[in-house]
Write a structure and sequence with these properties.
about 140 residues
Length: about 140
């Protein structure tokens, strides 16, 4: 119940609304998407996320790879609505001044993790399609 309350507060916050508003501009520009990916990668590596946050770090990595493949023009199968959601969540993630300040030890990332879980649950099938696409690209096909 507490997670639902936190998620509701995050989704209705001015911070997430601003991120969602910026998302459409980012999606239209590969350059902006690459800049976003770099900022997310930097924040994730700077955090040195371990323990209970390692699953969140893995999910962020998957989302970054999805956005990178989209920006490169390699993967276009993601629906626009899902892509906008991913970009909005990543924009929120890199903002240190969001609903719960990231500088606060441990709890500072609770809102980010709640938002990531919401995203994964919301667009799980699109994420799984990307994961399969990504695995197929790694497989060497011999005729």
């Amino acid at each position: 119940m507490a997670n639902n309350t936190l998620l509701t507060r995050v989704l209705s916050s001015i911070f997430f609304r601003k991120s969602a508003g910026k998302a459409s501009r980012y999606v239209r520009s590969s350059k902006s998407l690459f800049e976003l990916i770099n900022k997310v990668a930097t924040k994730t590596s700077d955090l040195g996320v371990t323990g209970s946050y390692s699953a969140a770090k893995d999910q962020v990595g998957l989302l970054v790879r999805m956005v990178r493949a989209y920006a490169k023009g390699e993967y276009k199968a993601i629906p626009q609505k899902s892509l906008l959601s991913v970009v909005a969540v990543l924009l929120y993630f890199i903002n240190p001044f969001d609903l719960i300040l990231d500088v606060l030890p441990v709890i500072g990332f609770a809102d980010d993790v709640a938002l990531l879980l919401w995203l994964v649950n919301s667009i799980g099938s699109d994420i799984e399609k990307f994961r399969i696409w990504e695995e197929d690209r790694k497989t060497i096909k011999i005729s």
